[in-house]
Design a protein that fits this description.
single chain, 200 residues, alpha+beta, Aminopeptidase, seven-stranded mixed beta sheet, 5 helices, 7 strands, globular
Length: 200
């Protein structure tokens, strides 16, 4: 990992001074395919407050000097919204044993340096400290012929598989956001990936 970058951990309200910087980063990165998200800082502030409300959350920010250039997040599934929890409740999972991994985002100039793997390591370490037996995240579903898919685009499935995660098509969530080409918001489906951990 590059020596010019600093990864700092935040829990709960400690994130608040950097909330807008993280929101702007999310808007910029998620504007890219496959999310094509046209966000607003107002929405981001509201969404990210979930992580500020619990000391059991973990947000890792990547700084280059004073600029936030990357981030990753996680928190207990019990403290996420019902739209994240619903599929697991229906499938009979115990929410108290699940840690949900939110975004892992980096500006393009900082990709390919092993930071993504480090994000997984730090989130998994935090999840295990909470006693989680399942770690999970979700990714948006897109058709292979999506018109906005860049030439040469490679999904992250192979990397996620190497980290020990398995895609679970039976576990899906629906979220609503406005894409960059849309006049109004529309629903999108996302599929969860899971990694199970043995009991300590």
């Amino acid at each position: 990992m590059s020596e010019d970058l600093e990864l700092i951990h935040f829990h709960g309200s400690a994130l608040e001074p950097d909330l807008d910087a993280l929101g702007r980063l999310r808007i910029g990165v998620f504007r890219e395919y496959p999310y094509l998200y046209e966000g607003s800082l107002e929405y981001e502030r509201d969404y990210l407050k979930t992580y500020c409300k619990t000391e059991r959350s973990l947000v890792v920010l990547v700084f280059n000097g004073g600029e936030v250039v990357g981030a990753t997040t996680c928190l207990p599934m019990t403290e996420e919204g019902p739209e994240f929890q619903e599929a697991f409740v229906k499938a009979g999972h115990d929410l108290k044993e699940i840690c949900y991994f939110g975004e892992s985002i980096l500006l393009p100039a900082y990709r390919g340096r092993g930071i993504g793997k480090e994000f997984f390591r730090r989130r998994e370490e935090h999840a295990r400290s909470l006693g989680a037996r399942v770690t999970t995240f979700c990714a948006v579903d897109r058709p292979i012929d999506h018109p906005r898919k860049p030439i040469g685009y490679e999904p992250l499935d192979a990397m996620w598989t190497k980290q020990g995660y398995t895609k679970h098509p039976e576990l899906r969530a629906t979220f609503v956001w406005k894409e960059i080409d849309e006049e109004v918001e529309s629903p999108k489906t996302l599929t969860f990936w899971l990694k199970e951990w043995p009991r300590a």
